[in-house]
Q: What sequence folds into this?
């Protein structure tokens, strides 16, 4: 039984990500925790006016959010008719990442799945601020679904490795599960600063080949090219439909998402991106 956290702000993008999740985990037993977090800074006059005299503004807002969550689950159950899924709704009033962290711990969350941008996400931004915060501050795998991306089976999956990364079986379990579920091809892309082959890189290649011995695996390297350009080009040329990376240092995450200060090029993911942590 998998425990999946689905944050939502009720935007079109977040609802699309939820639909992706239910299709992705079809035929698997899953507990879906659908979370909406309302920040205190989002108080509006309507909230104050709508709050009954005997109810705090906090309670009124949470009740309002809970009702919207219940309506959402009702609609989902009408579309995705299965006994494999259970739903729990959570309306919170907190810092977004604090709320997510608490649920990850208390509900033993295996994966957070969310859209790349929320209701206020600007088109030119890579990811919404909440998505970035979760990737940076929550120790749990995050699957990011691009805006408007519709579910399709994974046939070719890309594992992106920075020049300083090394392969650890226990850290890529979510990626492994995707490969096994879809029997997908595995492409490993090493983004390097030069053409030197280190002992670690040699061992990684050997270990990855052994680990995915039942699947088609290929290794590729791109030298001295900004990570966003390298990944985006590779995804297009090789017809990649799922990307994964594991991060240890925020510096790599910054390069992966934003590119160098010189190019100012942003990596705008066009396929689902799985971020795992060391």
A:
């Amino acid at each position: 039984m998998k425990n999946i956290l689905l944050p939502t702000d009720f935007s079109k993008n977040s609802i699309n990500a939820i639909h992706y999740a239910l299709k992705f985990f079809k035929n698997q037993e899953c507990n879906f925790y659908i979370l909406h977090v309302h920040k205190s800074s989002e108080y509006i006059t309507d909230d104050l006016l709508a709050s009954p005299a005997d109810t705090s503004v906090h309670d009124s807002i949470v009740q309002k959010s809970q009702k919207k969550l219940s309506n959402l689950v009702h609609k989902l159950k009408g579309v995705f008719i299965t006994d494999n899924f259970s739903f729990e709704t959570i309306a919170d009033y907190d810092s977004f990442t604090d709320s997510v962290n608490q649920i990850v711990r208390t509900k033993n969350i295996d994966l957070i799945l969310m859209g790349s941008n929320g209701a206020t996400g600007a088109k030119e931004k890579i990811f919404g601020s909440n998505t970035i915060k979760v990737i940076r501050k929550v120790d749990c795998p995050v699957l990011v679904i691009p805006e408007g991306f519709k579910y399709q089976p994974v046939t070719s999956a890309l594992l992106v490795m920075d020049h300083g990364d090394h392969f650890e079986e226990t850290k890529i379990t979510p990626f492994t599960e995707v490969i096994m579920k879809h029997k997908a091809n595995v492409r490993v892309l090493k983004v390097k600063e030069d053409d030197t082959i280190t002992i670690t890189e040699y061992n990684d290649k050997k270990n990855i080949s052994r680990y995915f011995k039942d699947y088609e695996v290929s290794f590729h390297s791109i030298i001295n090219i900004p990570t966003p350009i390298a990944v985006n080009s590779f995804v297009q040329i090789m017809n990649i439909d799922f990307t994964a990376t594991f991060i240890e240092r925020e510096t790599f995450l910054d390069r992966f998402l934003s590119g160098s200060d010189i190019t100012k090029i942003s990596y705008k993911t066009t396929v689902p991106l799985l971020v795992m942590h060391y």
Summary: The longest strand covers residues 30-37. The radius of gyration is 20 Å.
